[in-house]
Amino acid sequence: MMNNQVSSYKMKNHLLSLSRNVFKAVNLFDSLLSQTFVILSELREIRQLLFEQRPAGEELRVFSVAEAAEKLHVKPRTLRTWVAQGKLTSILIGRKFYYKVSEILPNP
User: Fold this and answer.
1) Which of 1, 27, 29, 70 has an alpha carbon within 20 to 30 A of 19's alpha carbon?
2) How far is CA 41 from CA 27, 30, 38, 44, 68, in A?
3) φ, ψ for residue 4 (rounded to 5)?
4) Where is the Helix-turn-helix domain (predicted)?
């Protein structure tokens, strides 16, 4: 009988520990979700500011590195060199670089 009580006690402790860990995980997920919404909100504000700063009537269109390199018939490394030399402007969005269509194509 004593052995069953110890086993039952261990099981209850294990379930309690598991419940605490699940609760912590849910709280962590909730916190991450909240931070994600804050980041998305800030990105929307940044996008709005970028659109407000462009000249009136100019559409902000961009090429990815691969697209710009293909259009100019050069390698992506050449684009980076041109940016370093000031011949071309890149736009960093997130972790990726983009190039204005107006800089890549003379008359888009």
Assistant:
1) 1
2) 21, 17, 5, 5, 29
3) -65, -35
4) 63-104
Tally of CB atoms within 10 A around 19: 10
Sorted by sequence, the CB contacts under 8 Å of residue 89 that are 6+ apart come out as 83, 99, 100, 103
Question: Percent of the chain scored above 70 by pLDDT?
Answer: 84
Q: Which amino acid does the sequence have at 41? A: S
Q: Measured between alpha carbons, how far is residue 104 from residues 66, 81, 93, 108 in Å?
A: 12, 15, 18, 9
Residue that wins the pLDDT comparison between 87 and 48: 87
Which pLDDT belongs to residue 69? Answer: 94
